[in-house]
Amino acid sequence: MTSKPDKPENLDSDCLKAFDHLYAYLNGELKDPNAVAMIEEHLSHCRSCYSRAQIEREINERLKKTGAGPTPPSLEDRLKKLIDNF
Amino acid sequence: MSEQNDKKAFFSQSLGDNMQSLYSVALRFTRNSADAEDLVAEAASRAWSALDSLDDPNRFRPWIFRILHNCYISDYRKKSVRPAETAFDEQATADDDSEIACLLVQQPDEFLHWWANPEREVFNKLLGDDLHAAIENLPESFRVVVVLINIEGLSYDEAAEVLEVSPGTIRSRMNRGRTLLQKALWQQAQDAGLISQYNTLETRL
User: Fold this and answer.
1) Which of A25, B120, B129, B173 shows the smallest number of beta carbons within 10 Å?
2) Does domain B93-204 have CATH number 3.40.630.30?
């Protein structure tokens, strides 16, 4: 997937097949090289799925930056006392 | 150093390395900082008692997340005043494929085209507060998978270990959870009038 495709396509069985692997692919969990090749080939010509994948990449990046923030000092103290008493 | 001290040092170090993630996930479970602290403390206590059952020290992270999750299931969810979501969750595997196909069809190219060139301010809102709200509103079994993998960075295998399900189930819940997330964002964009703004803009162009 090197450049943005411009050929619009409707949702079809290839899209559903690609979607089945999309999140595993984006999450780095798609280990089967044939499945990787299949989804990359599909994304290279399906504008809808390409756009969807871009959305999901962006969401992944945002989610990685999401968190509860630093651990409350009260919890750190509590766990330290807990471990001291083990 | 005695064996007990070695064990305690390992536990303290490993717990410290994962404390922030444990608190983050506990907060997602309980939605309350005081309960989240109690949950992490309870999980730490149970983990120490069960430390001899940890076969591989390198698997401490999924191991203690599993204990945290089990503590939540056994103690906190029972006490929760929020309505149980299990009825919805249990339907999840039966009609996954048809529902996902249906959701995809419901997300027309209109949204995808808007996304390709969104107004930045609107885009940031959609992926800021709206994204948080959308995650919070996911059914629990999907929310947990998205949090563990996409926020805390666990692998599918680790998440499967934590939730004591197969990696295939994790994959299925991820697909469905993220599809529902995208559907929620699409709905929020519509409710906020973003799509009609986009259409107006496009008509002018």
Assistant:
1) B120
2) no
Residue in chain A lying closest to B105 (CA): A11
Task: Output phi, psi for B198, to 5 deg.
Answer: -65, -45
pTM above 0.95, yes or no: no
Q: Tell me which amino acid residue A26 is.
A: L
Which of A43, A58, A71, A85 would you mutate first to test chain B, the one with the most B CBs within 10 A? A71
CB-count exposure of residue B5 (10 Å: 0-12, 13-18, 19+): exposed
Q: Using one digit for the tens of pLDDT, what is the confidence trace for A14-30?
A: 888 888 899 999 999 99
Q: Give CATH for domain B3-79.
A: 1.10.1740.10
Query: Which of A26, A47, A54, A75 to probe the B interface (max B CBs under 10 A)?
Result: A75
Domain boundaries, chain B: 3-79, 93-204
The complex's ipTM works out to 0.81
